[in-house]
Amino acid sequence: RVDDFARRRLPPGWQLDRPAFDAGLRQAAQDAGVALIAPARLLAAQLQHPGPAPHPGGATAARWWLQVEDAGAPPGGRPRALHARLLVEASGRRASLARLLGHRRLRLDHQVALVGQGPPARPLQDKPHPLAQRSFIEAVPDGWWYACQRPDGRRQLALMTDQDLARRLRHPAAWRTALAQAPQLSAWLADTRLPPSATGCDDDDNTTAAPHPVAAHSGCLASACGPGWLAVGDALMGLDPLSSSGVSGALRDGLDACHQVLLPWLAGAEPAGPGRAWGLRAQQAWQRFTTERQALHAQVHHWPDAPFWARRHAGAMPAVQGGASTPLTTPALPLTPA
Fold first, then answer.
1. Which CATH number goes with the domain that contains 189?
2. What are the start and end residues of every segment in region (Disordered) (predicted)?
3. Which of 268, 249, 272, 231 is nearest to 101 (CA)?
4. Long-range Cβ contacts of 23-27 (<8 Å, 24+ apart)
């Protein structure tokens, strides 16, 4: 069964040059006056008690003390001490700030992506290779394949599978077998020899190689926000790549955090009000994602006994909290601490 995204009457998607896109965002932030410390590592974060100091709009707010290691500083330098009124947890799936504050990150599954790269695709009859114009996914017993052509012309393949299954599939022979189980993708790759990372052979010496694993599980913070902080993007919830909404969702989080939390806070709103609203927003977003995730997985019924698909057909929606102790959804199956 072939399902073309364009047939769903949805706007066309984008194949993103992620390094260039991220660099552009950083530059735009600096142009707007943001002081960038990169690369950096957060060492400590302490929330100090609110004081009588005036706050914009007449309210008062807590004050954070941060200790940050500036990797760009000369060797032997001391960590930098910073102060902030509001912290935004945007460190991705690591959730460095939230973990430092003692908040749990939970996961719905143990999915990983086994990623390999290949040489540029040869055009077909003087036309661009199909992967240059679209992304491709195909289900197999052990998970599902993702393929696209990167901006530099090289083809990228990723097999989404579970962590326990990945131990076997990282072997070059098993990797080739899993690729052979994807007839549509194999046909699209047939115009050239298989990419070295897919065949398990290195370009230079033909020695065996293996794809490298990348985290691709679905998970979330048990708390979306707390006094003086809130989470956005993958730090708040890391979504299955099948949703194709990681980047767009993170951008939407940033915009909504500005309008729903930061601007009201600057205008004098009590921190507890925006916090509850942000938690409710996170809970609703998680519900939408898990509903869509279950609907997509339900379309694959060819291998009901395969562990990867059997686990997903038996899945349930987890709970997300709006604050440190305010649950915003009914109990569900327990999540696994990440």
1. 3.30.9.100
2. 319-338
3. 231
4. none
3-state helix, strand, coil in the chain (%, to 5): 35, 25, 40
Q: Are residues 277 and 244 in the same domain?
A: yes
Is 29 among the domain residues? Answer: no
Residue 280 lies in a domain: yes
Confidence band, pLDDT 50/70/90 cuts, at residue 160 = very high
The answer on 129 and 94 residing in a single domain is: no
Give the count of alpha carbons within 13 A of 250, CB side only.
17
Question: Would residue 237 count as lying in a domain?
Answer: yes
- Residue pLDDT, tens place only, 28-47: 999 999 999 988 999 999 98
CATH of the domain at 233: 3.50.50.60
Residues 121, 90 within the same domain: no
- The three-state secondary structure class of 70 is strand
> What is the structure's pLDDT at 174?
87
Q: Is the domain of 99 the same as that of 128?
A: no
Q: What is the identity of the amino acid at 207? A: T
Q: Is residue 53 in some structural domain?
A: no
Residue 209 backbone phi and psi in degrees, to 5: -135, 170
If you average pLDDT over residues 63-86, what whole number do you get? Answer: 86
Instruction: Find the range with the poorest average confidence among 22-26, 99-103, 245-249, 304-308.
Output: 245-249
What pTM, to 2 d.p., does this model score?
A: 0.78
**Residues composing the chain:** 338
Give the domain range for residue 283. 86-109+218-338
- Checking if the pLDDT of 91 tops 90, the result is yes
The whole-angstrom separation of Cα 156 and Cα 150 is 7
How confident is the model at residue 122, as a pLDDT? 59
Radius of gyration (Cα) for the chain, nearest Å? 23
For residue 322, what pLDDT is reported?
46
Same domain, 235 and 245: yes
Peptide bond before 183: cis, by omega within 30 degrees of 0?
no
